[in-house]
Amino acid sequence: MSFRAPKGTDDILPPVSRTWRRVLRSWDEWAERYGYELIISPLFEATEVFERGVGEDSELVTKQMYTFPDRGGRSLTLRPEGTAGVVRAYLAAGASGILKVAYSGPMFRYEQPQAGRRRQFHQVGVEYLGTAAPLADAEVIELGYRYLQSIGVSDLVVLLNSLGDHVCRPGYLAVLTTYLEERRHLLCDDSLGRLDTNPLRVLDCKVCAPKLEDAPAAVHHLCDPCRAHYADVQELLTAANIPFQEDPRLVRGLDYYTRTAFEYVATGLEAAQNAVGGGGRYDGLAETLGGRPTPGVGLALGIDRIVLAMGDVAEEPPLDLYLVVAGEEWHKQAAALAGDLRRAGLRVDLDPEGRSVRAQFREAGRRARAAAVIGQELEEGKVTVKDLASGGQEVVALEQVAAWLDR
Questions:
Q1: CA dist., res. 45 & res. 283, Å (int)
Q2: CA–centroid distance for 92 within its chain
Q3: Distance CA 172, CA 218 (A)
Q4: Spatial separation of the C-alpha atoms in residues 212 and 396, rounded to whole Å
Q5: How far is the CA of 177 from the CAs of 169, 205, 217, 250, in angstroms?
Q6: Which terminus has fewer CB within 10 Å in the chain: N or C?
Q7: Highest mean pLDDT range out of 69-73, 186-190, 388-392?
């Protein structure tokens, strides 16, 4: 009997996983540059964290969450997104003031699987907690943009909108509800169900949105503080040379957003999966989860879609050097040399089974930039090193191998 990965999940193996490793490693580097420290939160939370945080009537909660009772009868949910759990952790730790954290890991949603839309998918993200300053919004957006640029996501567009806050949004929702009520006959069953509970979600419906292009926009109903905040964010992005497009139709997929909302779109992908990430401000989320008022803004990026958007990337070989052992009598010395070179910072491997020199060179060509032949010359403290791209080779002293590779 053989087993397959569950529907909507993937086994990510070499060589594809090399791209994933590079993308994830680059994320850690960029998050550190901007001062975001690592946070590791549970893969599952009390179901109420997401029901209250994301919104009981949201499609994510009603249709997509993996929810189950544990052996103690408690309702738990595999995390469908990262923000609610991070804010819960911040509150549970009794933290106060500014906290900047970055995360990385799998999320789970019961989706209809397709390219770029999986039931287990990998996200990276940051949360900037404890400040309502527009600078935080702009910094988060800039970080995501710089990161995506650096790893080769082309045709990248930042979409930007403001959704207002608890002061101005009620007035806007009243106007929007009146507009939608007059067009009930155009709405699908799901949108009709949201009309009374969260009319803003109707604008995010893939079926209904094309029929509602003249709907009133939140950005045209902002109060003065929200309007000033939105203008400041735009000025900061312009000063940082981050190109953006205003999109008054952008509402994002979660209910906790206030004021700033943004999305990164890779226009080279099909429309169904061209959003590679996004985020926004969520100043009321902490209170919704039973905590004290704590403003926050964050982003999440989908690694699955990012890898799709990158296309076929010419990856560097995963190894710097492959040791080709010319005879069984040299195998222990080769293993010791591999250890020395690894401690010196090189990526090195060798064959464990004594295969032929030809077979070892084939493996070297598949995995490494260079090969070093371990044989008789080792008695003189030397090896023959070969550049596998150019074919050039020379005899090099052991202590010079690293320098030879850096040429």
A1: 21
A2: 25
A3: 6
A4: 71
A5: 12, 15, 12, 17
A6: N
A7: 69-73
Backbone angles phi, psi at 168, to 5 degrees: -100, -20
Strand 368-374 vs strand 382-387: parallel, antiparallel, or unpaired? Answer: antiparallel
343-375 tens-digit pLDDT: 999 999 999 998 999 999 999 999 999 999 999
Query: In what side-by-side order are the strands of the sheet with 348-350?
Result: 348-350, 319-325, 368-374, 382-387, 393-397
The beta-carbon contacts of 197-201 under 8 Å, at least 24 apart in sequence, are 197/57, 198/55, 198/57, 198/58, 198/255, 199/173, 200/163, 200/173, 200/176, 200/251, 201/57, 201/58, 201/59, 201/251, 201/255
pTM for this predicted structure: 0.91
- As a whole number of angstroms, the distance between CA 15 and CA 315 comes to 9
Closest CA to 259 of 377, 355, 141, 396: 141
Taking a C-beta distance cutoff of 8 angstroms, is the pair 157, 242 a contact?
no
Instruction: Supply 396's token pair.
Output: 């090099």
